[in-house]
Amino acid sequence: MIGKIYSITNYFVIKEVNGQMVILANQNGQEIKSNLETVNKAMQSADDFKSEKIVTQTQFSEIIKENKNVAMSIYYQKTNTSKSKKAFNEELTTWKENVKEAFLKYGLSGLDAFAVNPVLKYIPGEMRLIKGYYPGGIGNNGFFPFVDVEDNYTLKSEAVNPRTIEYVIVNNIKYIKK
Prior knowledge:
- The chain is an alpha+beta fold.
- It has helices at about 35-40, 55-65, 85-105, 110-115; strands spanning about 15-20, 20-25, 30-35, 50-55, 70-75, 80, 120-125, 125-135, 145-150, 155-160, 165-170, 175.
- The chain has a 7-stranded mixed sheet with strand order 4-12-11-5-8-9-10. It has a 3-stranded antiparallel sheet with strand order 1-2-3.
- It is elongated, with a radius of gyration of 23 Å.
């Protein structure tokens, strides 16, 4: 064994801590034991950060590309979902009835809430915190593939739109959208 070279590329979730002993599960669900000092010195956390930096949307793309295969967290908005024409028209009809009722009951002041809440032709994507790693590459739509390590060991890749990122945690720094 002396003189042989070894390598490991794994992504772990801490399952248990007993004093200085830690039980980790890798991306395939296999458990290993390690000591806390090794975890703290040799591994990068996707959760912990020691400092914060304000960055632009463009800088998010650069940060992700520069940290290929490094554990990180990304908080972003998932893709919007189009409504069916029928669902949109039903919602629009209800909205119009509510506007009419508010106007008759409260006059112009009753319309304020409707002015800032229009009927949309889509359902806005929900905000999502994903933890895993960027394996490299960019899709034709400009989205980053990102492997979700917490997704029950399926290693499913999620498409992340860099224009919807609110923050990224990588290498002990939390990068926050300007």
